[in-house]
Amino acid sequence: MQTTRSEELFAIAKDLIPGGVNSPVRAFKSVGGTPRFIDRGEGATIWDADGNSYIDYVLSWGPLVLGHAHPQVVKALIAAAGRGTSYGAPTALENELAQLVIDTVPSVEMIRFVNSGTEACMSALRLARAYTGRDKIIKFSGCYHGHADMLLVQAGSGVATLGLPDSPGVPASTTSNTLTAVYNDLDAVRALFESNPGSIAGLIIEPIAANIGFVMPHEGYLQGLQDLCHQYGALFILDEVMTGFRVAPGGAQEKWGLDPDLTTLGKVIGGGLPVGAYAGKRKIMETVAPAGPMYQAGTLSGNPLAITAGLTTLRELLKPGVFEGIAARTADLVRGLESVAAEAGIPVQAGYAGSMFGVYFLKEQGAPLIDSYEAAKLYADPPRYGQFFHAMLAEGVYLAPSQFEAGFVSSAHGEEKIEQTVAAAKSVMVGIGK
Ligand SMILES: *Cc1c(COP(=O)(O)O)cnc(C)c1O
After folding, report:
1. Ligand 1 atom nearest 119 alpha carbon
2. Max Cα–Cα distance, the chain, nearest Å
3. Residue range 230-280, pLDDT digits in tens
4. 158 and 194 fall within a common domain
5. Do 152 and 121 belong together in one domain?
6. What's the CA gap between 375 and 53, in Å, rounded?
7. Does the predicted model carry a pTM greater than 0.90?
8. Chain-centre distance of CA 206, in angstroms?
9. Which of 263, 315, 344, 425 has the maximum number of C-beta atoms within 10 A of its C-beta?
């Protein structure tokens, strides 16, 4: 596979942009090698600058649930652009998307649109603090909620419990109110509530921990967290930036019958353009300015281009059979990967929900279940994933360039693409099993 052009472009980029990329994981650091510079995408396929094509399971890290350049989305965007891209004034379109989300995501009664998942989570926590008059928040090690200062605490053990920041530039004073617990450990959260009486504003969690690979919640765990929050007067905040419109049309809260106080959304809700949202119960959302005193604003928030992409994408996704079709293809893919791994004698832990999936390569056969970031660090085998990743890339399959990221399927991934992917994995697994 010729990659000269990507190599040249990466060399130029590194001189212009830190690390050559505008978001770190794109740089292929954890798998090594040169990131592919992408030239175009259509349906389930992307083409790089050297003209190589790949079946894409990254899908811009989740947003493209209909695949690249979906004809309806493109058509709607062209029409919207012709009427102006942003006015800084309200539009009827925003009402339409707001109503659609309220009708689709069970707990949501009101919604505020922002421009990214980061903004959504940052604002939701400000709201939790404003509404409860409390300062502390609980998050989970390995859960990612964007790059706001107070949320850049995720490292394990000692660092985590002390609330020390993960990144230079984040003052300890900013994270001193961030308490961290191990994912899937309910008792740890109860202990935090007990040792911080009356001071925890809210708890934020990814319903599936999918920024460390793919970790499912234990049965009843999320419900248990919701109950604890309510027992101690804190808000239960479900970060559905990734799981929203993917785990079920109404997100993880629909799948597991949860009733979060606040929900954060992003990715699919923007259909490939920058949109995020925080949403939830009316009495809480009315704390947000100008209805209430909590300030939050955005020059381009709710712009017609982004809202059109989201609205068109969701309307297509919610047509009868579309979601179910993507979910069925996802199940076929994961079962296929599991079976070729088993044939090759390679230990994996695979999982999926709706149109999201993840496959851990394990250090050894019979490793304990990966159910937290701590367990992922112990039992997953990133070097072997790196081998798999590069061999799949050579076969024309583009997976996440890190073992600790989830994968995504779109409505454009037909049976044929799934079969092609599994066949590629079969030959690759035999090679790396040796
Ligand atoms: C991607 C992601 C975010 C951050 O969204 P951005 O749009 O990248 O700022 C927040 N939470 C979760 C769960 C995510 O997967």
Report:
1. 9
2. 63
3. 999 999 999 999 999 999 999 999 999 999 999 999 999 999 999 999 999
4. yes
5. yes
6. 35
7. yes
8. 9
9. 263
